[in-house]
Amino acid sequence: MSKKSNEEKLADIMANYVSDLRLDLELVGRYLAWYLPNVAYRRVITIMEAMKHEREENKNERNYLSE
């Protein structure tokens, strides 16, 4: 079994929290806006942009695999 990288571990944690429908994501966003310094805020935006790019790049591939 291969060891997960720190990036994979964090992605798993984030996915679990975001998938929890009991979690108020708007409130999480408010807290992040209040507490994160600008550098951390920009890094969160970078994560979101990378996720969007990856999903758009592989859109046709995923659609084919899901059928």
Structure description:
There is one protein chain. The protein is mainly α and 67 residues long. The chain folds into 2 domains: 30 residues; 31 residues. 0% of the residues are buried.
Provide the number of structural domains.
2
Q: Biggest β-sheet: count, sense, barrel?
A: none
Distance between the termini: 29 Å
- Cα gyration radius (Å): 15 Å
Give the tally of β-strands.
0
Share of helix, binned: over 70%
Number of helices: 4
Give the structural class.
Answer: mainly alpha
SSE string, helices as H and strands as E: HHHH
Quick check: average pLDDT?
88
Give the strand content: under 5%
What sort of overall outline do the alpha carbons produce when their principal axes are compared? globular
Uncertain residue ranges: none
Summarize the structure.
The chain is mainly alpha-helical. Helices cover 79% and strands 0% of the residues.
